[in-house]
Amino acid sequence: MKKRYYIGVACLVGLLLTGCSNQQKDTDEKKGEQSNSYSVSTVSQTEFGKVKGIKEDHTYIWYGIPYGADTSGENRWHAPKDPEKWTDTLDCTQPGEVALQFGSKGVTGSENALNLDVYRPDNSKDKLPVLVYIHGGNNQTGQAQEISGQSFVKSHDAIYISVNYRLGVLGFNPLPSLQKGTDEENSGNYTLLDIKHSLDWIKDNISNFGGDAENITVSGFSAGGRDVMAMLISPIFKGSFQKAISFSGGMTTAPVEQSQQVFAKAFAPLVVEDKVQPDESSAVNWLLSDDTKVRDYLYHLSGERLAKLMGNAGIRMAVFPHLYTDGVVLPEEGFDTRNYNDVPLMMTTGQTEFSLFGRFDPYFAKNVADQSIDKDANVKAQYDFINKYGGKLYSLFNVTDSANKMKANYQSPIYGMEFTFGDDVSVVGNKMGVFGSFHGVFVPLLDTNSQNYTALVGDAYQSKGAKQLATTFQDYVYRFISTGNPNGKGLEKWSDWQENQDILILGATKDKVTANQEPKSYTYDDVLAEMKADQTLDSATKEKLIKQVLNGRWFSYQLDKENNNLSDFYTK
Known about the structure:
Helices cover about 35% and strands about 15% of the residues. The protein is α/β, with parallel strands linked by helices. The strands form 3 sheets. The protein has an 11-stranded mixed β-sheet, with helices on both faces.
């Protein structure tokens, strides 16, 4: 695969920024003009060999197409390489390997999992807009199958691609002994290198599936959304995509030196267990050196042991720091950069984004087990407190906070959306009513076949209003990936954020979708003042909840600063 270096000379000069923006707009308005010259078949050609997919329910799907080589052994903690070419047609009728990870089912997956899924509609149209999806899971867990593209491409002329990439300490590792490669490899941001490699593959191959290589939208949910935001400031992604969508993402980065300390402490018990160093203090010092013996040791650790390290960080960067501001893959100044990959951007959030994280925080584990979280008035009041204010802070973080930081140095339109679906128990029922518009509320709307949240939400998405909401949301997404502007016939007007700082509030009654524009009704300062004035709990209980449940989250910088709980891992 040919490596690309995008210079973008015409847009380097400040006086030409407006011209570049208008040129992009003119180009985007022409996107989506598909022709009918594509010969649809389950067998398609890639630069590495032919792949055979399946036809199912008016869609064509190719699962697990390799975009990179095996990353185990000598390829561990290196930039991804191209897969070897194959001569026979590769069977891509079943989901591919997922990345090595540790979850409720123990260690699953493989270090040979750089693959992607491609979905397209059953028609002969080509030059289709391409939506690339990066899954969530805190960059520690998850898989490309998180969201199927079937329902979306069945009703919209688009290509949907979901990507598997390296996770956990295999996807991010800043330890000094590994910094013996290229500048990009030395960043420790291997996950981002994987995603970049997948976008190179898409650029080179998607026309063989009827897609437009010049109309690619990169999107992601949660960790994937944060990865998308990081791509907007990464020089290596310049020119790799034309639009971006962050579903509940927001801005997060981690400093290199502090991250090295966290990683050394996490690896130290293995070093002691293997009798390489006598105690954890010695092990930490050894791991922080650039001794080639450290590198050799790390390369010989089993993937199963590595996958178990650092656990689920629970949206806390201090537990598993990643997205390092190394100065090459990500700028040292992080999101304070003036050099964004300036493309039309859509950002979404739920209104009560913290509900799942709060309810399943270890603080409430006993109360969830014995159901006192819903039955004991005192416990319920505590959960309601962290759910209310954590939700407000998280929703600000996901959209408004990012838009405010970007506005001075970003020329392309930014569109902000907030879901309220879930806030009315009479509409969604008691099951979903507990969680409201939770982290992931959009998933059953983009993937109407999704079963990811059925146990939590029951039949909330089966009402007439919810189905209209799914149609409306998908139409906004389709218009955006096609033209860079989500507006279209039959859709409530959605102004870009720079015009009036309005966001689109999207919800539904039992019978119909609701949509209106308005600015965010509160700020961080408003939320902190409201928390102080809240009389539902005594001050000691509030302080305990803030320090034990809300502390250190992506969204809690100002809260932690006010309560003297700051860590080293915040994107300020």
